[in-house]
Amino acid sequence: MKILNVEQIRQLDAYTIENEPISSVDLMERASNGFVRWFCNQFVNTRPVCVFCGKGNNGGDGLAIARILASMDYHVNVYIVEHSTDASADFQANRERFKNSVQPNSIRTAADFPEIAPETVLIDAILGSGLSRPAEGLLADVINAINNLTNKTISVDIASGLYADKPNDKNNIIIKPDHTVTFQFPKLAFMLPQNALFAGEWHVADIGLSKDFIRNAQTPYYFTEKQNAEAIIKPREKFSHKGTFGHALLIAGSFGKMGAAVLSGKACLRSGAGLLTMHFPACGYDIMQISIPEAMAVPDKNEKYISELPDLESYSAVGIGPGLSKDAATVKVLEQLLDSVKVPLIIDADALNILSENRFLLDKLPENTILTPHPKEFQRLAGESKNEYERLETGRQFAVKHKVVICLKGANTAVILSNGEVHFNSTGNAGMATGGTGDVLTGIITSLLAQKYAPADAAVLGVYEHGLAGDRAAVKKGQSALIASDVVDCLGW
């Protein structure tokens, strides 16, 4: 799914209106019906509803939604925030359609804000995605009043006060919805942690905008859904053998951190690699042989950390980093690896920190190497950012400059390709915010690289399947009880 900016969505609406053809107000009706379909699946008509409308097109959506809900026997109250003497044409058209339905109320001052029963569901249709300046005055008063209530709040298309594709100032007044029902596409704002309070759980309502326009629209931003990920998966042939699915090498572990190596190795095998060799400090030999009997064990001569690079001749992909140390000898091993590796490579954890502390190594990164930093590791690699929008752009510039793939980990992990494209992930949950899950991701992607998936595909699919396994684990264990081993156990596709 593409993620388009506000101007592109405006052009898409206009193109659909002209070429379907359909009138603007009837397209609004279609969008409102899409919202109502979702709403009726969540809230029965015994729940009272209160709709807050601005005077632009988002308010027009709100009026149409209120009218449709009222026709379905919902008890609906409508409040129009009179923040302007002007109103959009579609707002006015829907107000005309509204005449034989519920009588709207006006909010002209903060004192006009109504008393609302706690069981009432609030619908926010005050300001839409075309917002160009912060909410002030009466708008800010109404938004603050809504936020001070404990009622369930649903935003139409986007939370009022939230910019769709640029950062808000920390002092901006923004609705904090429980849910957002957005039209046709998610907004870029929904993908970024700084906006979590202002998106809630978001849902896409397909409103039938022009597929031709969408197909041809240019954007660096995409959202990976089930069908996108499954299209990447290579089917297994009947007469395959273990050599068909590659031989992965994982260089991992140090004294006290062999668990990271074990998690990564198990995830690599669970993700379909035909063969796996683990290279680790000698202290981990018994641990490795007992924990992963399916893997071949090649201990380092050093007892506590990696000090030598094994012969790379027989491997089809290499992963390095889980549980690694930053000992001087390990730094030298990473440099040797970068100078000699001829197969796809993924770098994680302390191997990333070694790159940050020895920046000359960045120039040695083979093209399409995959880096899997969490936000702090990325900050050490690429520098500080004022906000997540800037960090995302920094990631794009870094990936293009160094010709690498970056998996910037977090909710909606951003897979940034070497051409600057960003693929946000749709799977995963907060239970995965626990030690070791990053090591699992490294193992998954190493396995896919060993199976000859292109690095971009391995990163997008690996991140998706990692999150999907986490979602399965959360169903079994609950998010609070989830640990990284549960994610490994739930891998499979």
Automatic annotation (TrEMBL):
Residues engaged in binding K(+): 58, 124, 160
Q: What does this protein do?
A: Catalyzes the epimerization of the S- and R-forms of NAD(P)HX, a damaged form of NAD(P)H that is a result of enzymatic or heat-dependent hydration. This is a prerequisite for the S-specific NAD(P)H-hydrate dehydratase to allow the repair of both epimers of NAD(P)HX.
List the Gene Ontology MF annotations in alphabetical order.
ADP-dependent NAD(P)H-hydrate dehydratase activity; ATP binding; metal ion binding; NAD(P)HX epimerase activity
Q: Which PROSITE patterns match?
A: YJEF_C_2, YJEF_C_3, YJEF_N
Please name the gene that encodes this protein: nnrE
Question: Which keywords label this protein?
Answer: ATP-binding, Isomerase, Lyase, Metal-binding, Multifunctional enzyme, NAD, NADP, Nucleotide-binding, Potassium
CDD domains named in the record: YXKO-related
The subunit field of the Swiss-Prot or TrEMBL record says: Homotetramer.
**Entry note: cofactor:** Binds 1 potassium ion per subunit.
- Indicate which residues the UniProt annotation says bind AMP: 409-413, 438
Q: Name one GO biological process term.
A: metabolite repair
Question: What is this protein identified as?
Answer: Bifunctional NAD(P)H-hydrate repair enzyme
Where on this chain does (6S)-NADPHX bind? 57-61, 128-134, 157, 260, 323, 374, 439
InterPro entries cross-referenced by the UniProt entry: Carbohydrate_kinase_pred_CS, CARKD, Nnr, Ribokinase-like, YjeF_N_dom, YjeF_N_dom_sf
Its needed co-factors are:
K(+); Mg(2+)
What does it catalyze? (6R)-NADHX = (6S)-NADHX; (6R)-NADPHX = (6S)-NADPHX; (6S)-NADHX + ADP = AMP + phosphate + NADH + H(+); (6S)-NADPHX + ADP = AMP + phosphate + NADPH + H(+)
The YjeF C-terminal domain sits at 225-493
Q: What is its EC number?
A: 4.2.1.136, 5.1.99.6
What family does the entry list?
A: In the C-terminal section; belongs to the NnrD/CARKD family.
Residues forming the YjeF N-terminal domain are: 9-215
Record-linked HAMAP family: NADHX_dehydratase, NADHX_epimerase
